[in-house]
């Protein structure tokens, strides 16, 4: 129950603006300002006990405590390595970042692109940090993590060997912002080793909160150059790489000085005239800084002598800085993959770039309730979370010349890098998009079942399911309403996700689920209406006081269900019987009289009819899909979140609910709805309780 409380509290925090870049969540509950103030008052340097200078912070396998790769490592502060260390010298530049002994070039390429925009850089690297005034050995950085920004505090002890930094470092050796940034990111993910291997786009996203899209350049669409131009015009960050199928070719250099299985940044485009004809160029950045393309349009190639001087003057094409130009046609031929990180509107501060429209939603796949698997699982697919999007306006200046509404959909699963040390694999994830039937247009208070979705074809979706942190696709759809269904490939795979939708024009996106309501059948029975047969049954189990105690009620109900072979049950619990008494006891005696008993028995018979009717597979239990339908017939309309709680509370390990738990659930729901209605005096949909009321109700 505490996890549910945390989830609900987190949602409230989001509504209050907690988790934005301006109000980031302190990672590990470490507040930078208070920790720094404490160190300055005590005149001590900060020691971070949550990410200590020990071998466990380096890694768990290749950089684990027993690995030869960590022998001789000494953690030192910059002031022990340099007489005058500086945080940033003359602004952060792409050339400040040199790779160390860690395979995180993907991260360095992302950091390099980050430096292209000072405003974006300051989202991640808060200004006013230095080794001079107010130095206390403490620094902090901010990262986007699964829909919210977190503020990560570190001390400035860095791993070294033989007096030299082991990982990221600046070329001149006195600038430390990139070293400390890498350490903060390692802390966020559990260790330095957790950063080994990855795609530049992951770093892009965690530095900006943007959404990724990827293109295989061997299958590049004919309008990709225009997409690149438009992306750069929207402030997007771009990365590229050369894939190699040979594991021995890790960072191998080709004859034209391109590095295989190495992350590059794409930092610009230009169109120049070469001998009178237009040529499309792209600018590429190697985070290593010293290995550059030597083919056409490289720094010293002959092509530049045939470009008009005015055009050539605009381009810096001869600096030995790891950045180079190449023809777009050569780029597509020599590189394998392009990754684009499209930024959220709140990340962009420049007025010179355009804006995407953006929505994001948290969600969960929970076994037995909302983890329905892909469409192949016809019995459970529709139990997955559903989201509706309304596309009303077509794009301006479409890159393919066709009218339609462009959208980017990204589905991201959480905590993959942290889970690497435990050997946990990512789920295989994807999503499907369907057109909303005309009769449901304009509504979000529905949850589509198999009678709707499985009768229709997908209009869009992921080409395949993949075990990746995020899977995303760009689509162009006609105006209309659509439902997006994110899922794992297999059913009953647990996970948490963030669904994000970017659109060129404003579009309404919202979770699609039923409103929470109750239409409870009221049973009015007076003493004169009591059926004699009920009296006989009642007196058989009632005590000398002619009332049913909780224990006597339990005996009676278990006697009833033990004689039935059409339902499965392990007997009514004492807790369920207490809830029944609490619901029906009108005089506060803690027992049921004859009239109360008949009211209960009518309910039990009605619940039994519903249970048998909705047990479509005749298993004697309720599955989550059957349970949703059964609750509706019983008068309770609940959404996916409530269904998750019900399954976790009342289902067995096979996610099935037997009859006694089914009755217990319905009784509990009826009581909770009645309590809410009692306190919702002004009909606002919200209630307010003091501590006495809360404890009495929670304990009752």
Summarize the structure in words.
With 700 residues, this protein is α+β, with helices and mostly antiparallel strands. It folds into 4 domains: 10-208, no CATH class; 211-342, Cysteine proteinases (Cathepsin B, Chain A, Alpha-Beta Complex), CATH 3.90.70; 357-417 and 424-513, Jelly Rolls, CATH 2.60.120.380; 527-699, Recoverin, domain 1, CATH 1.10.238. A hairpin with a 2-residue loop joins strand 5 (158-161) and strand 6. The longest helix has 21 residues, at 594-614.
Features of the shown structure:
Jelly Rolls; 700 residues; alpha+beta; elongated; 4 domains; single chain
Structural class: alpha+beta
Shape by Cα distribution? elongated
Q: Number of helix segments?
A: 21
Question: Which stretches are low in confidence, meaning pLDDT under 50 for 5 or more residues running?
Answer: 348-353
Largest sheet: 6 strands, antiparallel
- Domain count: 4
Task: Kindly state the number of beta strands.
Answer: 23
Q: Average pLDDT across residues? A: 86
- Strands ordered across the widest β-sheet: 7-12-8-9-10-11
Distance between the termini: 16 Å
Helix share, percent: 25-40%
């Amino acid at each position: 129950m505490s996890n549910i409380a945390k989830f609900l509290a987190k949602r409230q925090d989001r509504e209050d603006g907690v988790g934005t870049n301006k109000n980031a969540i302190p990672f590990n509950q470490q507040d930078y300002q208070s920790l720094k103030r404490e160190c300055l008052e005590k005149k001590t340097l900060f020691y971070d006990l949550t990410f200590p200078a020990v071998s466990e912070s380096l890694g768990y396998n290749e950089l684990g405590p027993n690995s030869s790769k960590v022998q001789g490592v000494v953690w030192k502060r910059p002031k022990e390595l340099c007489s005058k260390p500086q945080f940033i010298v003359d602004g952060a530049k792409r050339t400040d970042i040199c790779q160390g002994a860690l395979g995180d070039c993907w991260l360095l390429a992302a950091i390099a692109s980050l430096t292209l925009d000072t405003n974006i850089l300051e989202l991640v690297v808060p200004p006013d940090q230095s080794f001079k005034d107010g130095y206390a050995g403490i620094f902090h950085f901010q990262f986007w993590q699964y829909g919210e920004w977190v503020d990560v505090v570190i001390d400035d002890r860095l791993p070294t060997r033989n007096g030299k930094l082991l990982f990221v470092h600046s070329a001149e050796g006195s600038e430390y912002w990139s070293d400390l940034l890498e350490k903060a990111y390692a802390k966020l993910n559990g260790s330095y080793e957790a950063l080994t291997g990855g795609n530049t786009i992951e770093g892009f996203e965690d530095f900006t909160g943007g959404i990724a899209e990827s293109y295989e350049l061997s299958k590049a669409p004919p309008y990709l150059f225009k997409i690149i131009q438009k992306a750069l015009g929207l402030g997007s960050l771009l990365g590229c790489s050369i894939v190699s199928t040979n594991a021995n070719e890790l960072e191998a250099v080709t004859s034209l000085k391109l590095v295989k299985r190495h992350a590059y940044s794409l930092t610009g485009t230009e169109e120049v005239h070469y001998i009178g004809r237009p040529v499309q160029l792209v600018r590429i950045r190697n985070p290593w800084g010293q290995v550059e393309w030597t083919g056409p349009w490289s720094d010293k190639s002959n092509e530049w002598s045939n470009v008009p001087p005015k055009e050539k003057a605009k381009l810096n094409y001869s600096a030995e800085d790891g950045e180079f130009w190449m023809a777009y046609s050569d780029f597509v031929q020599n590189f394998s993959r392009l990754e684009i990180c499209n930024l959220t509107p709140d990340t962009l501060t420049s007025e010179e770039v355009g804006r995407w429209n953006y929505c994001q939603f948290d969600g969960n796949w929970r076994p037995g309730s909302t983890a329905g698997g892909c469409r192949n699982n016809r019995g459970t697919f529709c139990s997955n979370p559903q989201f509706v999007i309304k596309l009303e306006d077509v794009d301006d200046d479409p890159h393919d010349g066709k009218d339609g509404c462009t959208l980017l959909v990204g589905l991201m699963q959480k905590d993959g890098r942290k889970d690497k040390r435990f050997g946990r694999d990512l789920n295989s994830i994807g999503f499907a998009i369907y057109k909303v039937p005309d009769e449901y247009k304009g509504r979000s208070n529905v949850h589509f079942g198999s009678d709707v979705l499985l009768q229709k074809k997908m209009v869009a979706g992921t080409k395949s399911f993949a075990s990746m942190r995020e899977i995303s696709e760009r689509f162009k759809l006609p105006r209309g309403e659509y439902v997006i269904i994110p899922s794992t490939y297999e059913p009953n795979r647990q996970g948490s996700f963030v669904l994000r939708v970017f659109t060129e024009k404003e579009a309404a996106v919202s979770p699609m689920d039923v409103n929470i309501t109750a239409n409870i059948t009221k049973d009015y029975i007076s003493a004169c209406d009591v059926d004699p047969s009920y009296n006989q049954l009642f007196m058989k189990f009632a005590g000398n006081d002619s009332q049913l105690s909780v224990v006597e009620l339990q005996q009676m109900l278990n006697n009833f269900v033990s004689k039935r072979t059409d339902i499965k049950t392990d007997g009514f619990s004492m807790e369920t019987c207490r809830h029944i008494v609490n619901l029906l006891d009108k005089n506060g005696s803690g027992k049921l009289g004859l009239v109360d008993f008949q009211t209960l028995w009518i309910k039990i018979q009605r619940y039994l009819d519903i249970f048998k009717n909705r047990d479509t597979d005749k298993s004697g239990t309720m599955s989550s899909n059957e349970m949703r339908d059964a609750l509706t017939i019983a008068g309770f309309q609940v959404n996916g979140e409530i269904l998750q709680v019900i399954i976790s509370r009342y289902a067995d390990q096979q996610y099935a609910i037997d009859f006694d738990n089914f009755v217990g659930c319905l009784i509990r729901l009826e009581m909770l709805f009645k309590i809410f209605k009692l306190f919702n005096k002004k009909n606002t949909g919200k209630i307010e309780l003091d501590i006495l009321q809360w404890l009495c109700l929670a304990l009752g």
